[in-house]
Each structure stands twice: as structure tokens, then as C-alpha cells.
Amino acid sequence: MLFKYLHLIRVHQWVKNLFVFVPLLFSQHMFDEGYLFQSLFAFLVFCLSSSAIYVINDLADIESDRLHPVKKNRPLPSGKISTGSAVITASILIIAVFFLLFQYFNYKFIFLVIAFILLNVLYSFWLKNVVILDIFSIAAGFTLRVLGGAYAISVPVSNWLILTTMFISLFLGVMKRHSELVLASEGDAIQSRKVLSHYSLNFADQMATVASAGVIICYALYTVAPRTVNVFGSEKLIYTTPFVVFGIFRFMYLEYMNKKGENTTRTVATDIQMILTIILYIAAAVMVIYKVI
Questions:
Q1: What angle do CA 199, 203, 207 make, to 5 degrees?
Q2: How far is the C-alpha of 32 from the C-alpha of 171, rounded, in Å?
Q3: Do the beta carbons of residue 39 and residue 3 sit within 8 Å?
Q4: Among 16, 9, 23, which residue's Cα sits nearest to residue 157?
Q5: DSSP string covering 206-272
Q6: Both 18 and 60 in a single domain?
Q7: In the prediction, which pLDDT does 14 show?
Q8: Does one domain contain both 151 and 141?
Q9: CATH number for the domain harbouring residue 102
Q10: Are residues 277 and 187 in the same domain?
Q11: Between 168 and 259, the higher pLDDT residue
Q12: Which has the minimum average pLDDT: 57-66, 85-94, 114-123, 138-147?
């Protein structure tokens, strides 16, 4: 029973909310207990919010998900959990979110989380069916996570870092659409996601090229920006760029060669090279930012 509800609220997708910790890492406060615990609370708020949104999205898509070769096995379309129970679950999650918001956070973070929830509700009922805006909506969600992480601990965040986040999320969104298009050519995926009929593999390829280039350029410019060098007192952050480039290329390889781009979380969490790249990047960034080297 518990497993069904954990599947319903997509606990495995909480990894996406780790973007909340980006400002903590780059603000040089990662080892400050007060900042760390506040970021953990912010992470929890985004986890509960995103879980509520996943339930709402599943309620909105219950019929179309039944046509999808993979999504039909989810708790709602498969009938393992009733719509009434799903509504109660989403309501409990939203109540928990607002309780935490008004207990532990400033008004900027509160308004941002409300904006995050409204954006995703709009996505569930409308934006996901609007070509290009569907991908930008996904990107906006990740960007709001980073901004939320900054607002939660009241630290500034570089515009270059925001742009990097936007392009990373655009890239992942495009890769997901590309994977769905490949699946559609082999079955009934277009029936389960109407917006796919407005995309083509060639168009997705071109968008992926632009988005991946945007990630690499924006991150590289962030590492050498005068403000970055001044704050960290070093130009060595540029040496973390190869990890970013390799990660982008590796993900493209997994999608284009192995067709594993539809589920971003599973793709990253099950590929040894991606896991090692992320670990090495974080280790290198920490050593530079916290002046270990």
C-alpha cells in the first residue's frame, strides 16, 4: 500500500529538487549549519509541492496515460489508487506545504513557491499542450527552484547561473520530447501527448543543439565573470567546465544512441559515467569555491 502512494507522489523524482541547493553551494555557505538547514527545509517544501503537482497532473492525464506503453502502469491509470484517494493525497500535500511556508520562510520564498505551484498547475491543464511553451514551462520550473534556494537563505545568485539553469532544463526538456517522438514512431505515444504532433525529430535535434550550446557557453562565461572571480578569489572554477561539457555530451549519447532520454532521473541515476561526472564536478567545484585548492 505504501509503495503505491510513494509511486503516486513520485518520490524518485525528488532528485530534481536538488537544484534548490545550487545557491547554497555557490554562496560559500554550504558548511554553515543555519544556511544548510534552511536549504533542507526549502528542499522539503519543493518536494511536497512537486509531489502534489504530480498527483494533479496524473488526475488530469488519467485517460491519456492509459494509452501510453509505460505510464499506463502508474497507480492512477492502472486503477491501483482511486481518484478520490489521489485528491485527498494532493490536498494533504498542499496543506503541508503552506504550513511549512508560513512557519519558516520569508515572503519572497512564499510568493515564489506559490508561483511554482501555479505554473505547474497551468502546465498540467494547458501549457503542456502548447508547442515550445511546454518546454519553456519545464525550464521555468527548474529556474524557480534555483531562485527559491537563493530566497530561502537570502543570498544573491548570478544571472549567468540562472541562464545556465534555464538552458540545462531546456536541454533536458527537449531530450525528453525527442525520446517521446522516437517512441511515438514505434507506437501510440502521440495519442498520449497531443503536443508531440507539433514536433519533429529534426526540429527537436536543432533545439537540442541550441540548448546544449547555451548551457556550455553560459556556464563557461559564469566561471570567468569578474563577479565570480572576485567572490571566489580565484579563476580556477573554469576547470570545472569540462565536467559540464562531458555531462551534456554523455546525456546526448544516451538519448541518441541508447534511447534513454525520456526519464531524466532514471537516465542520470543508472549511468555510471553520469554519476561519476556529477560527483567529480561537485568535488571540483567545492574545492575551488571553498578554497581547498
A1: 115
A2: 33
A3: no
A4: 23
A5: HHHHHHHHHHHHHHHHHHH-HHHHHHHT-SGGGGGHHHHHHHHHHHHHHHHTT---SSHHHHHHH-H
A6: yes
A7: 92
A8: yes
A9: 1.10.357.140
A10: yes
A11: 168
A12: 57-66
**9 grid coordinates:** 507522489
pLDDT in tens, 184-197: 776 544 455 778 88
Q: Number of structural domains, the chain?
A: 2
Percent over 90 (pLDDT), the chain? 65
Long-range contacts of 253-258 (CB under 8 A, 24+ apart): 255/175, 255/178, 255/179
Question: Tell me: the pLDDT tens digits for 231-263?
Answer: 999 899 999 999 999 999 999 999 888 776 567
Helix (H, G, I), strand (E, B) or coil at 132: coil
Alpha-carbon distances, residue 210 vs 124, 142, 165, 263, 267 (angstroms): 26, 18, 14, 21, 21
Question: What pTM, to 2 d.p., does this model score?
Answer: 0.90
Same domain membership, residue 4 and residue 140? yes
283: closest CA among 271, 292, 270, 273? 292
Looking at the fold, whether 106 and 143 belong to one and the same domain comes out as yes
Q: Which among 121, 156, 191 is the end of a domain?
A: 156
Q: Which domain holds residue 245?
A: 158-293
pLDDT at position 164, please? Answer: 95
Q: Is the pLDDT of residue 293 over 70?
A: no
* Nine-digit cell string for 193: 501527448
C-alpha cell at 257: 544512441
pLDDT at 125 over 70: yes
Domain boundary among 103, 123, 156: 156
Count of C-beta atoms within a 10 Å radius of residue 201:
13
